[in-house]
Amino acid sequence: MKTSNHGINLIKESEGLRLKPYLDADGYGTIGYGHKILPCEKFTTIDVATAQSLLARDILHCEECINHCVKVTINQNQYDALIDFIYNEGWSHFANSTLLRYLNNDQYKAAANQFGLWVYGNGEVLDGLVMRRSKEKQLFLQP
């Protein structure tokens, strides 16, 4: 399975586009559509095409995560919701999450309810994450 255009647009909408480096809510150097700048990367500014390329590369990493971690059948909406979640939270958080544990035990509703617990940045509830997790949950629950 691959991320649909709907899933890609969810990431773009959630992350926004920034063509110059900035620090995200957790203090990580970030650019484009929420791409965490790697130690080997040096950016002062990028164009939209570069942002799209970084996004595509980061999505591939998220897809690898799902292929490795998810052991049950999921639909495209569930896949896209998980891609957005992993894009934001990272492979290790997802791989060790109760969300994944519920999902792999065929407890889809319980898994969906886990999205709402991932709304903290630096120990504080972030309104942007509350909205993002709500959208992920809604998408995840769509057949």
Topology:
Blueprint: H1 5-15, E1 18-23, E2 29-32, E3 35-36, H2 48-69, H3 76-89, H4 91-95, H5 98-104, H6 108-114, E4 120-121, E5 124-125, H7 127-140
Antiparallel strand pairs: 1-2, 2-3, 4-5
Helix pairs in contact: 1-3, 2-3, 3-7, 5-6
Radius of gyration: 15 Å
Order of helices and strands: HEEEHHHHHEEH
In CATH, the architecture is Orthogonal Bundle
The residue-averaged pLDDT reads 96
* Tally of alpha and pi helices: 7
The span between the termini is 16 Å
Total beta-strand segments: 5
Strand content: 5-15%
Structure in words:
The structure is a single chain. β1 and β2 (29-32) form a beta hairpin. The chain has one domain: Orthogonal Bundle (Lysozyme), CATH 1.10.530.40. The strands form two sheets. A three-stranded antiparallel β-sheet has the order 1-2-3. It has a two-stranded antiparallel sheet with strand order 4-5. With 143 residues, the protein is mainly alpha-helical. α1 (5-15) runs parallel beside α3 and α2 (48-69) crosses α3 (76-89). It has helices at residues 5-15, 48-69, 76-89, 91-95, 98-104, 108-114, 127-140; strands at residues 18-23, 29-32, 35-36, 120-121, 124-125.
